[in-house]
Amino acid sequence: MNVVITGVSGFVGQNLFKYLEENQCNPVGLSLRNDWRLSGNYDALIHLAGKAHDTANTAADEEYFKINTELTKELFDEFINSDIKDFLYFSSVKATADTVDDILNEDHHSDPKTPYGKSKLLAEEYLLSKVLPAGKRLFIIRPCMIHGPGNKGNLNLLYKVVEKGIPWPLAAFENQRSFLSIDNLNFLILQILKNKNINSGIYNFADDDFISTNKLIQIISKTSGKKLKLLKISKKLIISIAKLGDKIKLPLNSERLKKLTESYAVSNIKIKKALQLSKLPVSAEEGLTKTIKSFQTK
């Protein structure tokens, strides 16, 4: 199976490329940075390239729409006029909701608040507005927080807190979050590519289990051999410090506090049902443990 992938230099792209190679596929990278053309004999196109969510809020709004929306439109138009059968667009759960009160599924009414989420949703809407030629399929993938060995982000931040023996100061915040290990992501993509009976549509990608941040701190402590230290400081005080971090450079600001403490539970029932799976290969705790162990080798 010949597969062309955009964004192959990113964390997901590098891992997915290697995984597909190891599973009898022939992946090829396509750079969209300069002049590009969709040519060649491919069975599927996986569109990973995009402008990631900037938690520091320094990116200009138009950058998101130029890259995440307009570039996706151009690529999809090329796909429509090509012989490629499958188009897999990596959107985000943030295209439908910035906050989640219950469990997020694909039927949720989309109402993103950030330029990132809005740019992803506009791309989705454009893809869904087009009539697919016979024999072609469109998959809009909405992953939640992706992690794995080599990944940098909030997990690495939490690891450093535990590794230094610093008590976790946000233990007063109770939440339930979804994560997505790179191993489960790779597995799901390969299953979609191999199974020609799956219908086009929007599919959430997430691990099976929800994990609280306090549970995550427990997993990190256990994996790194450190004593568990949970500190329950007043929520009001923490929120005040985060607001101060919005104005001056502090390790904690409102955006980061939200990411670390909010509940964001994502259902993966639809994709498992489509693939006739009872569970994913890697549990949420197994995946997180693998990622955390990778930090120890640095």
TrEMBL record:
Domain NAD-dependent epimerase/dehydratase, residue spans: 3-204
SUPFAM superfamilies linked: NAD(P)-binding Rossmann-fold domains
Any matching Pfam family: Epimerase
InterPro entries from the UniProt entry: Epimerase_deHydtase, Lipid_A_modif_metabolic_enz, NAD(P)-bd_dom_sf
Entry protein name: Nucleoside-diphosphate-sugar epimerase
